[in-house]
Structures are given as structure tokens and as C-alpha cells.
Amino acid sequence: MNLTEIPKLKHTNSDNFFLLAGPCAIEGEDMAMRIAEKVVRITDDLKIPYVFKGSFKKANRSRIDSFTGIGDEKALRILDKVSEAFDVPTVTDIHEVEDAYKAAEYVDVLQIPAFLVRQTDLVVAAAKTDKVVNLKKGQFMSPESMQHAVKKVHDSGNQKAWITDRGTMFGYQDMIVDFRGIPTMRQFAPTVLDVTHSLQQPNQTSGVTGGRPDMIETISRAGVATGVDGLFMETHFDPANAKSDGANMLHIDHLEGLLRNLVAIRRTINSL
After folding, report:
1. Which terminus of the chain, N or C, has less C-beta within 10 A?
2. Can you tell me the distance from the alpha carbon of 91 to that of 56, in angstroms, rounded to the nearest whole number?
3. Structural domain of residue 26, as residue ranges?
4. Cα distance between residue 123 and residue 133, in whole Å
5. Confidence class of residue 62 from pLDDT cuts 50, 70 and 90?
6. 266: pLDDT confidence band, cut at 50, 70 and 90?
7. 25 in helix, strand or coil?
8. How many domains does the chain have?
9. Residue 191 and residue 223: Cα distance in Å, rounded?
10. Residue 252's domain is classified under what CATH number?
């Protein structure tokens, strides 16, 4: 698919990777607007096509007392407000068929979580909204198997599919990124590397997922060098107190320096 098909997506002729970034979950309007404002400024300066990311609800939690959201409609309206205020497209993840139609009224990209990417009804519902469908590779799936998820979108009459790699399970409590999968998946659809989720350490005895944010730059650099079309990162002003996935999130103060380095790598790769 052509990036120019996405409403409000800027800098599509810059030959840069595109970026999906924002908080894990929408915790409130003020935090979403503050994060969006800063990321928009950075990406405009670096000519990076940018999509604001925020989950309107979190359904895949380890514990029943984990934060799941501030209310579906309230969070979706905040995503819509971010889009209008900063003139950027937005992405959110969906978990049920009815979520596809609900979220499609507010966002430009519907994301299928890795645990749910084989759920045919969910993938087809997302495809039938005619939004971009971002398919996260299951932690249990091979890169080659993602062609079938993409085909479900295409066979539903929607050619706008992405694949996002978010790591593969390595034992019970760690993730790895097999960079051999990037060129494989790029044969099927534009491919994104989810940097921060790839650094999760799931299944902790506390029921709260851990992570390795110190490795964000390492994984990001490798992804750009491997030729990914896009990068996905969760970022926050206060990761330690974020209501979801704070352990593997990038502090927003480090985002600009990281992206400058990655743009330089991309420029070098493009010149070869």
C-alpha cells in the first residue's frame, strides 16, 4: 500500500521510515495532548511520517486489577481530538469484532494485537471498515505464517495491511527479535518493528510485565539497518508511573536523540 492513502500522514516523500508512537494506553486528555505535541514537533523537524498511537482500552491484562482504560468512548474521543488538534492520523488496537466498527469512527489505523492475529472474525471486521489494518505478528508465529493474516485482509476487499513484528517468545519470560523475519514479511506487506514490546519480559510472578528499555536504541538501530518500513514505540513523560507497560517504555525526553540517530542510519542505508 501507498502511505499517501492514509489521511493526514505527512512527509510521505521523505524516504524515511514511518513512526507509530505514543502512550500504551490513553490515561487522560492532558497526557495524550502533551505527548502528541512533543512527538509531532520532533517528527516534523526530522520529516518522519507520524501516526499517534494510544490504546482506547487494554483487554489483554495479566491481572484482573490491572488498568484497562478510562472508558471506551472517552478514550476514543481523545484520540479524535489529538488527530484534529495536530492534524495527524491515529492508531488504536481492537480486541472484539464490535470494537472494529466503534474505533473506525475515530481512528485511521486499526491494530490487531499479537495474541489475536489468528482470529479470523476480528481481522475480517477490521478489514471491512476500509481502514489500514496493522497486524501484529503473534509471539508464537513464524514470519512466513503472517502471509495468511495479510491475505485475510486482502480477501476481504482491503489492500491496506501492515505487519508489525513485536518479538517472539524465548522461554517463558523473554522475547527475541529474529531480524531474518523482516525481509520475509516485507514480501507480504509493509513491515513495522515494534521496538518497545519486543523488549518485554512477560509472565513475571508479580503479574506485571517487565522490560529492558535500555536496549531500545540497540533494537531500533538493527531494525532500521534491516530495512523496516516503520517503527513502533511507546513513550511517556513518566514511564515509572504509566498505567500500562511502563517497564519497557521509552522516556519521551530520549525520543528526539534516538530518532535523529535512526534517521542518520536510514539516510546511510538509502545511499548504499
Report:
1. C
2. 10
3. 3-7+16-271
4. 8
5. low
6. very high
7. strand
8. 1
9. 10
10. 3.20.20.70
